[in-house]
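ok trying this again, last paste got cut off
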Amino acid sequence: AYKVVLIEAGKHLLGAFDETLSTYVEKLFQKRHISLMTGETVDKVEFNTVVTGSGARVPFGLCVWSTGNAALDVVKSLGLELSRDGRILVDDKLRVRGQDSVFALGDCAVSATAPMAMLAQVANQQGKYLAKSLNRDPELSSVKPFRYIFMGSMAQLGTWNAVADLNGPKVTGLAAFLAWRSAYWGYQVSITNKILIPMYWFKSFFFGRDISKF
């Protein structure tokens, strides 16, 4: 019989979420017989064993490694002023330090005074802000600084289950799953994708995931 072991360096899973949601996820995983090792780092990965920072050895048949984002070499090679984690430093109008006509946004950029997480909704809002600002005033002299508005966070936990922090309400279970799918579908910019995605969901639900390769 197989066993799933989840190693997390943080105190809780989904550390960026509200504690009630992370606790819900942990209890759900325990019901699914997933072993949780929170507050534990990975020291090294051997041929078929994970060695944790505390010295525990976890044997595995399949190891799935998920790490944080790191700056790309192309960003480091630009010769721009970078933060400690290798991201391009920008001001409150997304201008690169020392380069008033050069802008950076998304995961590769960070403000020294108001750093934000590397999230899709941050990059999306920055892109819209910069496009509108440059169309209004190319010099940005009359433009207000960028202000990020948190739109909520969601995480799917399998069929019919998810958690969602909707910038106030904390939702779990089926309601969160429907909210996640609705948001995923709604953010598609292509009409073709909006037609195809529900078809794929229908196909996957009734016939399972297609893992064949041609």
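PB: full thing came through this time. The mean pLDDT is 91.
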